[in-house]
Fold each of these.
Amino acid sequence: MLTTEERFMQMAIRLAHRGIGRPSREPLAGAVIVADDRVVGCGYASERQPVPAIIAALDKAGGLASGATLYTNIEPCYDRSDEESCVRMLVECRLARVVVGATKQTQHSQQGNGILSELVSRRIEVDTGVWEHGCREVNEKYYKYSATGLPFVTVTFAQSLDGRIATGTGDSQWISGAAARRFAHQLRREHDVILVGIGTVLADDPRLTVRLVKGRSPLRIVVDSRLRIPLISRALANGAASHTLVVTGKDADGARIRAITDMGAEILQLAGAPNHSGVDLVRLFEELGRRGIASVLVEGGKGIITSLISARAVDRLATVIAPKLIGQGTEAIGDLGITRLNEAIAFSSVHIRRLGSDIIFDGRLSADDTNL
Ligand SMILES: NC(=O)c1ccc[n+]([C@@H]2O[C@H](COP(=O)([O-])OP(=O)(O)OC[C@H]3O[C@@H](n4cnc5c(N)ncnc54)[C@H](OP(=O)(O)O)[C@@H]3O)[C@@H](O)[C@H]2O)c1
């Protein structure tokens, strides 16, 4: 049974979700203003309305904000020099109390921005930690990025009940049903980047754009150390809707590089991974982080997924399990060098649900939620 406080905080989280589609380095924020147990204003920040959630909620509440309580899932931003800062607005609107679900601090950074003590000094009552885990999970990409400078990495694939992502001939379309494919496009919309290996481009020729739900298409990345990508591949087309970055090795062929950049794609040359002939994916994530990219959706295939899980570079696994048996075929994940069960990779915060006849397994790999 939820308390009244938790109910209002969950409402703030639902509002925050409406902001999905903004760059992941910006936290998702929702705000609910409550007077006499009644919601008098609510707001969220989104691509279309970039006004801070709290300001939007105060705007809706008008004079009813006086003496009211504000519920927000994340500590608001505060810039002392900013005339429009949330603190000034909260004081001017005579708000009595602010309830913050989660501060901006993580286990690795003390990055709070001082707004809470500023509010207390202005005689506004402040409480924190209501429905805290849910508030942190909604901003898990933001927290990981602000604590480490690295993007949050989600791996997704559709597999048969016997763990195959393609048949022995490489056929993989479609393992999952229509509802699960919409879920996959929703995941695309929630990330800054979609990444695949060259094997997936050669086998499936995916477009890697958002089509089955509304939203912008993220940057597309193809990891291709020998530049085998065909110039007619769909991941290089449709440049106006989505930009493509092809990541390759230091010694890639110059003529091939020019042919690909002539298609409108960007080439990034990185040194190979130690003990591996392919691209160093950890180094790639460091570079993406430097470019302000805070989330990556990895859509396969087996080679890239196995490398990333082996390197313990995955934060979330969202797998679609279809009620089908394929038998011999391509397994989702190859050898991880695990010989004992107590070395098996564990999950935390697992969510399981049904979509049509498919099952979605959605779990976090960091057993102790270290990102949060
Ligand atoms: N069911 C699903 O959801 C789903 C999704 C995606 C793919 N698939 C299936 O998966 C199969 C493709 O699997 P795949 O393993 O060939 O494809 P992949 O993982 O997309 O690509 C693997 C290739 O990426 C390159 N690479 C570069 N750096 C790498 C690194 N650090 N680690 C691993 N690979 C690196 C390598 O080629 P170079 O050495 O030439 O660079 C490697 O051969 C297809 O049958 C496809 O249909 C299924």
Note: The chain has a mean pLDDT of 91.
Amino acid sequence: LTSDLLDFSLNINPCGAPAASLEAAARALRDSHLYPPRDAGELRVALAAWHGVTPDSLIFGCGVDELIKLAVHAWTQPGDAAVIHVPTFPRYEIELRCHGARVVEVWSPDPWRLDIARLSEALGAHRPAAAFLCLPNNPTAANLTAVDVTRLARAFPATRFAVDEAMAYPLDEGLVGVASREPNVVVMRTFSKYYGLAGLRVGYGIGGGSTLAAMEAARPPFNVSAVAVAAALAALDDVAFVERCKQVFAEEVGRFRARVDGLPGCRVVSALSNVVLVQLAGVSAESVMDGLATRGLRVRDAREFRGLEESNCIRISLLDAEANARLADGLEELCHSNPESLGAATASQFGSDHRRSAKC
Ligand SMILES: Cc1ncc(COP(=O)(O)O)c(C=O)c1O
């Protein structure tokens, strides 16, 4: 790899962090000799008002990653069944397996969609202690409606549902309303993505009843630092920042898609905030990744995602306009240096790749 490596493999916010958050964090550092508030203090009150829920409907975690761990520990016993829908964010499966839970995977015939019928079938057949839904789904951007999730939650009241909305746009209502109505649903959100605070590790869940109480009982009391709480609180006030991020992500995804979709054997199959999946035909993802690496461009092999092993996709977390243009140039050069194989790709070839990656 060259020294001026551009890393598109990490799912981060290319707009950075809000300036007000950095200032608030610096101020909070002065009280580093103190433990943070056990209940996230003012952040709890502010988020409750923001979402229109009561403060006791919230739980805080060291990122959504910790909330996933808490849910697994609180809701499942070793040997219990837990449902996930692949492909999805890998943490659910990792935490469940570490805890000794039995992971039930739901596969859709079309890996770019979440299959509500099969999900429902698996819930009925296995009566799991927990189900993990990533909405919108990382990495495919597939989604379910509030009506779908409400139906599932009511049909399977003994199952606890974690709805991971880490990738949702913060100003969207998402499934917060469902979580505040249904006692077996917790929605999880993060300050890592649109708010640009991934390094400070702040996530929160919204829910109620014994579902939330069990997670709260498993939560270490000082799991979110005062610095992180202060930064998140300041970020909440900066609505203009998340609006700008949304606009920048949409512009960059649009520009990148326009270039990549015009290349032979290359197409964007999903886009979620600033993260895109590019499917390749006529050439392996591996050789494209190698070719990009020699140009100082690192992307992620999407075949690492269970359920996308045969998809021949690379995952790209877009950066700024200049970096993204360099990546598009790199892809273009690789496509044109291999015109025979890449040029031979057709829409139907992409289609069969999709179907081959499905397993029921
Ligand atoms: C779907 C999903 N859930 C959870 C996380 C982890 O978020 P956090 O940084 O809040 O731990 C990510 C991070 O990429 C994610 O994409």
Note: The chain has 14 helices and 13 strands.
Amino acid sequence: VATPRLRHPGPFEPYDERDTVFARVALEPGTAHYRDYYRRRPELERGDGVLRNLRGLATPGTMRYRPGEAALVDGIFATSELVARALDASPAFSGAEGTGAARHDLADGDPAALTRLVRDAAFFLGADDVGIAPLEPGFVYTHRGRRRFGEEVELDHTHAVILVQAMRHEYVLTAPEMTSTCETARVYQGLAAACHALAAALDRLGIAARAHVDSNYVVICPPLAESAGLGEVGRNGVLVHRTHGPGVRLGVVTVGADLVADAPRSWGVAEFCRVCGKCADNCPAGAISRDDPVVVRGALKWPMDPQRCYKYWRTLGTDCGLCLRTCPFAKPDTALHRLVRGVVRATAALDRPMLWADDLLYGRRPRVVAPPRLEVGPPRGGSWRNRPQGGAPSG
Ligand code: B12
Ligand code: SF4
Ligand code: SF4
């Protein structure tokens, strides 16, 4: 099935991880990296300075700070950090040849058998969905930014295995509260462990593999997931998964052996986005485009403004997520929603009535929901005892 997204002019131009807002804000004034970077990109220095001086994620003084949940977020990220660091410490995951004693038959002989093994293992390790795509060089960073700043990326792997883990819907609905950031962190941790284990297992078979996990990626995940047929990148800039919608997180294992790739396909998402725009209307930072898609580095897509988004994060002290929460595709996987998704996939003719129905039933703006309890701390200005029952996250 043709993918609307593939009507791009291409070829895709790769991106430099140093240009991501996370890498820039981590630069320390006075260092050689800082000087070199802003010598090349002087127009970014002032704005990045403003961002750097704001408080960070889960930090006291931010708008949605809750001490218990913030501690949980910190604890979970500290655990993921162990994996992210291990990736750089171990030569086995640097993209070199696998370290297994001998190349196993699976490595050379039978791509279909290796693909089955990899897919089964990924599901076994906790993925909710798995896809395989050829590793498009345009989706590999040219240089590293968050770790080993400035190092050229050399990754000669041929395929990417994309692991999808869904965030629990009731937590997505709490965005932009700290509660949803806890869920973000939890899923990252799960993916970090799963991707690390899968890459390590391939390594044991003598197959070169590298895990790409939160804070240590050399690939851009959403377009790879789209190429693997797992969904489509929407106006909100992230993968809208075929079943779980945008409330999913992605981990990737790139592999230096032949695998049987899945085909990209249209799920009706990009067409629906043309008429919808709900994420843009609900983005408090005005970071999401309301216009038609444009060509960026060879891809037809909706550009977003990362500075605006990230500034909002650092003001809230959470990772916001309103563009996940308010998307009409962010619905639990029930029979009714499967039916609606089937209609959207089959025809764009009913997109407007579908959107109208979504607005009517779920609201154009996020509605008040009763948040699930984490019970890890009082809300801002509250105490354990007076924690509101069914309180309202506001957006
Ligand atoms: C840097 C970063 C950010 C930055 C910049 C966002 C951005 N759009 O790039 C900030 C801090 C703003 C951010 C915000 C968010 N992020 Co973020 N972010 C990343 C990170 C670490 C790197 C992305 C990157 O290199 N961007 C720089 C360039 C490439 O950006 P860009 O040109 O705008 O391209 C974006 C898209 O257009 C698309 N893309 C790039 N090339 C192509 C080519 C084609 C053909 C297509 C179709 C798409 C496409 O991918 C890029 C990221 O979405 C990725 C992890 C990863 N390695 O992929 C997570 C990631 C993209 N983020 C994610 C999420 C969920 C979010 C948020 C919703 C926050 C939240 N609560 O979770 C918001 C959404 C913001 C938005 N509307 O895009 C998830 C998306 C999961 C999914 N469903 O696809 C990722 C994949 C993390 C993960 N492992 O799950 N993020
Ligand atoms: S995470 Fe929030 S600020 Fe960022 S793009 Fe989404 S809605 Fe906008
Ligand atoms: S909210 Fe609407 S426009 Fe935005 S990604 Fe979802 S379907 Fe597309």
Note: Residues 283-285, 287-288, 304, 309, 312, 320-323 surround iron/sulfur cluster (ligand 2) (CB under 6 Å).
Amino acid sequence: MPSEVRGRHAFSFSSGPAILPEAVLREAQADLLDWEGRGYSVIESSHRADDFVALQHETVTLLRELLAVPANYRILLLHGGAHLQFSMVPLNLLRDRPQADFVMSGVWSDKAAAEARRYCTVQVAGSGGTDCRRLPDADELSFDPDAAYAYYVDNETINGLEFPYVPDSGDVPLVCDMSSNFLSRPFDVSRFGLAYACAQKNFGLAGLVVAVIREDLLGHARPGTPTMLDYKVHADADSSYNTPATFAVYLAALVLRWIRAEGGVAEMNRRAVERSTLLYRTIDGSGGFYTNPVRPVDRSRMNVPFSIREPRLDAAFLAGAAERGLMQLKGHRLVGGMRASIYNAMPVQAVRTLVDHMQEFQARHG
Ligand SMILES: *Cc1c(COP(=O)(O)O)cnc(C)c1O
């Protein structure tokens, strides 16, 4: 197709990198050659140029506004994806203590705990069980007042579990991986010592990470911590200690502007509830043709895994979905079946099309 008539005609249900708002992609397309009328590309700009520094500042200000981040928290724009936080968290927050508490909820808490074990004793503060069908209830958690920090994952992207509450770790700083549900619902930042998220699920490009950290937790990196892994270094340098991931920061700014224009994080939550309710209703109303194993109260608004009664039908289901422009619905290799990741940018209409496909497919094969 000639480029003038090319536009979105399919939707990516990928778990990440994931769908972005079409309006943002169009704007980025124009800015790629001519950045908001400057005549050169945003990715050709120095990160020290006033215009780029202003954009970075706007990104942080938008985050502060959208999430109502209190003044005693710093917002850092970091590199290395969520995985690097698995190391930065213990390196910066252990502060000479020998142990940290972890709530075990699935693949992502396992991975973060495995990395933390290189530096400290990992104590299990609670678990939903190894089959990942539920999260622990609040009264099943027990935190050690001597732990350096208490860590949990707000949304388990692979199994489709999402915390319906914020754990109470008392005076122990609460640390949260919000990679797959950041900016999809309001949260009380003051409950957390540190909340972080990679950008490629709900607000942009892979590589970039936003970390919201309480100021008193800066400046305690253990001796030997690489400079680039010290939160305070990034805070002191306004997230430009080295060259920031400029295009990712720019794209995050566009998505944040879009979120604000659409009605903010509360509106993102309203849409997430609408999208996920459509899917869970279809699954639960299918008489067992489709199933989702997660306890209803712990079901994710962001990632909806489901299986077809007869797995031999998976390929036909995916082919029919692709014909309707519904892409990348294949489930994670650890879980199998399907997974619909329905982040902020996923139009409700695309989910309605998926529901139509599910119902017609069942009528034909059920
Ligand atoms: C995607 C994801 C990660 C990993 O992100 P990377 O940027 O690939 O390191 C970590 N935690 C959660 C909850 C995720 O969804």
Note: The chain has a mean pLDDT of 97.
